[in-house]
UniProtKB/TrEMBL annotation:
InterPro entries assigned: AAA+_ATPase (IPR003593), ABC_transporter-like_ATP-bd (IPR003439), ABC_transporter-like_CS (IPR017871), P-loop_NTPase (IPR027417)
Similarity comment: Belongs to the ABC transporter superfamily.
Gene3D superfamilies: P-loop containing nucleotide triphosphate hydrolases
Domain of life (superkingdom): Bacteria
MF (Gene Ontology): ATP binding
Protein name: ABC transporter ATP-binding protein
Entry keyword set: ATP-binding, Nucleotide-binding, Transport
PANTHER family referenced in this protein's UniProt entry, alphabetically: ABC TRANSPORTER, ATP-BINDING PROTEIN (PTHR43335:SF2)
Domain ABC transporter per the UniProt entry, residue ranges: 2-232
Length: 295
């Protein structure tokens, strides 16, 4: 179990990227959803001990993560948003090198580890090719392989499916789901379906604060009977926004489909729809925008 308590991070320029964040994250996949600038990467980097928070605490089991970062790193797998550079080294050699850095000094053990991981992420056939020439999906699978070196108990993946085609995305998410049963995996993303498909628990972060937390099914259940749909002209949208709590809009066959949150029917033109996680997410974001951020 990962326990985050009253975590705040203020950057040198005064940006309050995390504002009193508290979360209990159990074993399994945990989805952290939030829009751009919500503070997700700041939270992920802080848990991964790449930066220290301004205040607050993080515990992984009994381990005090902020006081003993090296201890956490031994049991951490981290897939950052972007590695930045992709070396012209083969996947095999790069993993072998990273395994040395992770402290696997025995050649035999390293060979076993690297071979098992390359098979697990389905890169065995291209193990001798340079990572620089890999597609986005292959790079992400390589990223997972390196994150899994040394059987980590805590795995952090930061926006892993952005830019993947649907097939690669599925393959990647299935891989995560397989490893996710016995360890803590935090999946940070702005893609709602990634969380809906995979995560038994989730939270929404916006403006540096946790806006909502729970099991996706329960959160969807809480919207029952409160989501309404109608089709309007694009030009009418502003007017509808003024009059109703519009939680999402989508173009459909030249019209604009809107979802509105309301305890009772907003009018004859509206039909009830069963809410989904996107409705949960967008209604949470629209509610968070109405609350002024802390100074
Ligand atoms: N090094 C930094 N110095 C100052 N401000 C920063 C720094 N890094 C991030 N921020 C700011 O902190 C806030 C949170 O950024 P963060 O990258 O954690 O969000 P995010 O949810 O990961 O967003 P994205 O999805 O765009 O990556 C933003 O307002 C961002 O501009």
């Amino acid at each position: 179990m990962l326990s985050i308590t009253n975590l705040t991070h203020i950057y040198a320029n005064g940006t309050r990227a995390l504002d009193d964040v508290s979360l209990e994250i159990p074993r399994g996949m945990f989805g952290l959803l939030g829009p751009n600038g919500a503070g997700k990467s700041t939270l992920m980097r802080t848990i991964a001990t790449l930066q220290s928070p301004s205040s607050g605490s993080i515990k992984f089991g009994e381990l005090d993560v902020i006081k003993e970062p090296e201890m956490l790193r031994r049991t951490l797998g981290y897939l950052p948003q972007d590695f930045g550079v992709y070396p012209r080294v083969s996947a095999y050699d790069m993993l072998d090198h990273m395994a040395i850095l992770k402290g696997i000094s025995s050649g035999k053990e390293r060979k076993d580890t690297v071979e098992t991981l390359l098979n697990q992420v389905n890169l065995w056939n291209v193990r001798k090719k340079a990572i620089a020439g890999f597609s986005g999906g292959m790079r992400q699978r390589f990223g997972i392989a390196q994150a899994l070196i040394g059987n980590p108990q805590l795995i952090i993946v930061d926006e892993p499916t952005a830019g993947l085609d649907p097939e690669e995305r599925n393959r990647f998410l299935n891989l995560l789901a397989e490893i996710g049963e016995n360890v803590v995996i935090i999946l940070s993303t702005h893609i709602v379906e990634d969380v809906a498909d995979l995560c038994p628990r989730m939270a929404v972060l916006a403006g540096g604060r946790i806006q909502l937390e729970g099991a996706p099914q329960d959160l969807i259940g809480s919207l029952k009977g409160r989501v309404w749909r109608t089709a309007i002209e694009k030009a009418e949208l502003e007017d509808y926004r003024q009059r109703y709590e519009v939680i999402s809009t989508r173009l459909f066959a030249g019209r604009t489909l809107i979802h509105v949150l309301s305890d009772t029917s907003p009018g004859a033109a509206f039909e009830p729809v069963s809410g989904n996680l996107e409705d949960v997410y967008f209604s949470t974001l629209s509610a968070s925008r109405r609350v002024p951020a802390a100074a």
